[in-house]
Design goal:
Layout (H helix, E strand, L loop, with lengths): L5 E5 L4 H15 L4 E7 L9 H15 L3 E7 L8 H14 L3 E5 L6 H16 L16 E5 L11 E4 L4 H9 L2 H4 L15 H15 L5 E5 L18
Parallel strand pairs: 1-2, 1-4, 2-3, 4-5
Antiparallel strand pairs: 5-7, 6-7
Helix pairs in contact: 1-5, 2-5, 3-4
């Protein structure tokens, strides 16, 4: 039995809110148990401090309705996909037992973002290997999703989640990070347009929403092809 239905694993506090905050908010509203693992404390950030960001992350988690938020304390700007980090993360995955894991796009501006995508994939696999940690029961998530929000240089999304009803909640969670985002026009994978950050996010989310004919959306990519059993049930009209 899952302790967490969907777990977002990201390198820095605020990454989950920017990339998949709407999806997490929707899932929580619909009764799913969600969680966030921040791999680092964001100690290399130019603005704010570790303590401030931790408090902001806690407030944002409440806004999104996540059941669990933890920080692994790995080195910011120094993440490596190496055995100790993989095992540490695999043990957490075994404990929380998510069915679905959301993580970063395989490409990213920050080195930690790119490393996280592969680190999470490898840790998910090792979480199902019995001898990874004899003290915990093996568990391998059923699905790994890469959040490709703001990554227009990647691939076409495998699917887009309708977050129209939860978009303002996503913005409210992002706004909890005053030390990081107040008065800025760029953050994380969000490229600047000269507009306030919230407006850039609004426009990008509207773009993704337009792909599935809704107001706001968040895009995801999977390495495997998605299955369809009934083509008559396919959504998003062609014409």
């Amino acid at each position: 039995m899952s302790i967490i239905d969907v777990l977002a694993i990201v390198p820095h506090p605020d990454d989950a809110e920017l990339l998949c905050g709407g999806t997490l908010a929707r899932l929580a509203r619909e009764g799913r148990r969600t969680g966030i693992i921040d791999l680092t404390r964001g100690e290399m950030g130019t603005r704010g401090s570790v303590e401030i960001r931790a408090a902001e992350a806690a407030r944002a988690a409440q806004v999104l309705g996540v059941a669990v938020r933890e920080n692994l304390g790995l080195p910011d700007s120094g993440l490596e996909n190496q055995p100790a980090a993989r095992r540490q993360l695999a043990v957490v995955i075994r404990r929380l037992r998510p069915q679905v894991v959301i993580t970063m796009a395989p490409r990213g501006r920050h080195p930690d973002h790119r490393v996280t995508a592969q680190l999470v994939r490898d840790a998910c696999f090792l979480a199902g290997v019995r001898k990874t940690d004899p003290g915990t029961e093996p568990h391998r998530p059923r699905k790994l999703l890469h959040a490709i929000t703001f990554r227009e240089d990647h691939v076409k999304p495998t699917f887009v989640v309708d977050i129209s009803a939860d978009f303002e909640t996503k913005l409210a969670a992002i706004a909890c990070y005053e030390s990081q985002f107040e008065g800025v026009i760029q953050a994380g994978e969000v490229y600047p347009t000269g507009e306030p950050l919230a407006e850039v996010i609004r426009h990008q989310s509207a773009h993704y929403g337009s792909l599935i004919r809704c107001a706001y959306g968040e895009p995801y990519w999977t390495s495997e092809t998605m299955r369809v059993d009934d083509i008559m049930s396919l959504a998003v009209e062609t014409f």
